Amino acid sequence: MENNSKLVRIEGIVEEALPGLIFRVKIISNGETREVLGHPAGKMKLHRIRIIPGDRVSLEMPNVNDRRARIVRRL
Question: What is the CATH number of the domain that holds 30?
Answer without folding.
Answer: 2.40.50.140
